[in-house]
Amino acid sequence: MDASVNTSIEANAVRPPKRYGSRLFLSVFMILLMAGTMQIVLYTAPTFEPQHQKDQMIDPMGWKVPTKRPTIINATMTLQIETEPPEQNEALDLQLLVQDTIRRNPLIELLEEAKLIRPEDVKQHLDTLNNPNATTVVIDGLTLPTWPLLQSLYGKMEEPIVLGMERCQTYRDNVLPKQRYTAVAGMFNTGTNAMEHHLKHNLVQMRSTWQVPWGKHRMPFVRLSHKANGLEKEDQTKVMPVVMIRDPFHWMQSMCKMPYATHWKHTKKHCPNLIPNELDYQRFGRQEPTFRNGTAAIKVIFSEVQIFHWESLVDLYSDYYRQYLDADYPRLIVRFEDMLLQPRRVLAQVAECVGTTVAEQWKYQTESSKGHGSHTTFAAAITKTGDAQRRVAGMTEEDLAYATGHLDPEVMERFQYQIPKQLSDT
């Protein structure tokens, strides 16, 4: 063997042993939970001092390995864990369930924020609110539609339907910030006063007028040829019109109750009466001129010189909104139902369109927004909006068939308004 190799082996043989650290711990904790008691089993390896003895060490090529395993010592200790009383756990679970129920029911969340109901009220109706087949729930005296029912009438409502956002950039490019202002438009009974409240109080640093300069109920084609009283100095081309539209069936029900400037022959028992029946003939006679075309013709008297005629209520509705749908200028068209049920999201889109933001301190108007005519509170409007039976109250199958054929199909589709196939469907 080479001398250098022998020298290396001999050097390894006489090398002093390395000492281990001060102590080697190998601890494994097993937690046993039994009746509120925790047991911790601690395994600890004792200190091991290697000895340079042949019977205890295997020393091939300098490796120092103990021939005997170290002794394992078992140590058991018991700790007492304090747990919450069962009744406190149940209270916490109930609170979390209430919060989750509110979060999953946007209508309940809205009413709580408006301070019309409290979490304590919700707690009493959890079963109904979490039942997908329930249609109504009575909370603190309010008969409310459930969110699934509202979705069956107006679509999923994951986001509000606001038509016209694609023209907002054009509006901002052509109208200076200091010249911009918002104003509401829409047919009678479509929530124009409520929207005017939001535009005035819930948009930051944005001027608004209580109606568009040409008159909020006027037909859109008079936009550049007519000025409403008190708005003569306003520039029609600088306004961002926010046009309100409403489910036509609920709209007709409201028109029967408060027609404003709209006039037609009808009775309380048959209204909306798109097609006259015996009740109408008994009251007004078969020779009634407004019935001559087989429909209950209407007229709207905007002024002495602006009187317009339509074959029926649905023809007025379709004509009015078709003109705004086809308009070539920037405008937003907002569903009444979205403004009512998710106002923050609606106003966020309006704010984005005109280049501003929504107020942090939101102002609700829970009482009637009208200073005239029919007075409906915020909660009552929600109840009516979710009443599927009320949509077709007073109508006949002939009325429904006429509505199906004369409501503008594009308007109905784009705003996700449903036409019942027959009266029994509701």
Describe this protein's structure.
The chain is 35% helix and 15% strand. It is α+β, with helices and mostly antiparallel strands and 426 residues long. The protein folds into 3 domains: 3-80, no CATH class; 86-142, no CATH class; 162-425, no CATH class. The strands form 5 sheets. The protein has a 5-stranded mixed sheet, sandwiched between helices. A hairpin with a 2-residue loop joins strand 1 (30-34) and strand 2 (37-44). Helix 2 packs across helix 3. The longest helix has 19 residues, at 86-104.
Q: How would the blueprint of this fold be written?
A:
Blueprint lengths: L2 H11 L16 E5 L2 E8 L12 E2 L6 E2 L6 E8 L5 H19 L1 H8 L5 H5 L2 H4 L6 E4 L2 E4 L1 H8 L7 E2 L4 H7 L6 E6 L5 H10 L5 E3 L29 E7 L2 H10 L4 E2 L14 H7 L13 E4 L5 E4 L2 H13 L6 E4 H6 L1 H12 L23 H8 L2 H4 L5 H10 L2 H6 L12
Parallel strand pairs: 9-10, 9-11, 11-15
Antiparallel strand pairs: 1-2, 2-5, 3-4, 6-7, 8-15, 12-13, 13-14
Helix pairs in contact: 2-3
Protein name: Sulfotransferase domain-containing protein
InterPro entries: P-loop_NTPase
Keywords: Membrane, Transmembrane, Transmembrane helix
Give the key terms:
426 residues, alpha+beta, 3 domains, three-stranded antiparallel β-sheet, 35% helix, flat, disordered N terminus, transmembrane
> Which structural category do the helix and sheet elements fall into?
alpha+beta
Q: What count of domains describes the coordinates?
A: 3
User: Over all CA atoms, what is the radius of gyration?
Assistant: 38 Å
Assembly type: single chain
Count of helical stretches: 17
* Helicity range: 25-40%
Largest sheet: 5 strands, mixed
Low-confidence segments, given as residue ranges, are 1-79
Q: Widest sheet: strand order?
A: 8-15-11-9-10
Terminal Cα span: 106 Å
Overall geometry: flat
Proportion of residues in β-strands: 15-25%
Mean of residue pLDDT values: 84
Strand count? 15
